[in-house]
């Protein structure tokens, strides 16, 4: 049984301030849990209903193995062991789940520390998200980055929080394989200038056609806010402005593309030009 304190804590993780305070977030759903088990992130606790455990014995066995074999503390002073696996009634799962119809399993996970920017960005393709505020867009962009093997995504402080439930769900597990870093984009671009001599690409509605532009396999790609585009203070750092041409006709054509859709098209063109750079086998 969960105490009122447990329920209050778990529900508080829906809010950014409490996730940052407790350095934790939660994950729900079979596929997400399976991806999480194969990542480098650390569980804090694992909650499941009896029905879920019975129906998902193979996956639950993986969870047991994870906790049993984990010897190091992964959250504060808490030791990770089978005591962290908690079977709870369906009614309690309904109280802590962010879903209207709970999947029956929820894990509390440690938020990884922000990585410092260093040599790992050298000769890499890096995505910068400038004030992308829709959680679905941010999560989908993480999924796109994962697909195109872009490991580093820099999120400005004004972006939707990388570890809020809607972002995590929209990423479909990709967030566990990436290194989303929240920091000032100006600070990042200044640091990038010290390490890299590559281009800083900015995505604009009307600029140089991406399909005829010279593109390199590395560099920085900045994706702007859904409605305002790229912030004025970032423009001086951009060395090449690119855009996706519209083939629409008439007075009712759309003004712009969705931020995540545009990111997918841009990343695809960069990887295509890179002649397979970063390609991973999909099994």
| CATH topology annotation of the largest domain | Alpha/beta knot
> Which CATH architecture of the largest domain would you pick?
3-Layer(aba) Sandwich
Order of helices and strands: HHEHEHHEHEEHEHEHEEEH
Arrangement of strands in the largest sheet: 7-6-5-9-8-10
Number of helices: 10
How is this structure best described in words?
Helix content is 34%, strand content 18%. It folds into two domains: 4-110, Ribosomal protein L30/S12 (60s Ribosomal Protein L30, Chain: A, 2-Layer Sandwich); 119-273, SPOUT methyltransferase, trefoil knot domain (Alpha/beta knot, 3-Layer(aba) Sandwich), CATH 3.40.1280.10. Helix 7 (135-147) links the parallel strand 5 and strand 6. It contains ten helices and ten strands. A six-stranded parallel β-sheet has the order 7-6-5-9-8-10, with helices on one face. It has a four-stranded mixed β-sheet with strand order 1-4-2-3. Helix 3 (30-37) runs parallel beside helix 5, helix 7 packs parallel to helix 8 (165-171) and helix 7 runs parallel beside helix 10 (259-273). The longest helix has 15 residues, at 259-273. It is an alpha/beta fold. The protein has helices spanning 4-12, 16-22, 30-37, 50-55, 57-69, 90-96, 135-147, 165-171, 185-195, 259-273, and strands at 24-28, 43-48, 85-87, 105-110, 125-129, 152-155, 179-182, 200-209, 219-223, 240-243. Residues 73-81 have low confidence and may be disordered. The protein is elongated and about 60 Å long.
Write a concise keyword list for the protein shown above.
alpha/beta; 60s Ribosomal Protein L30, Chain: A; four-stranded mixed sheet; 10 strands; 283 residues; Alpha/beta knot
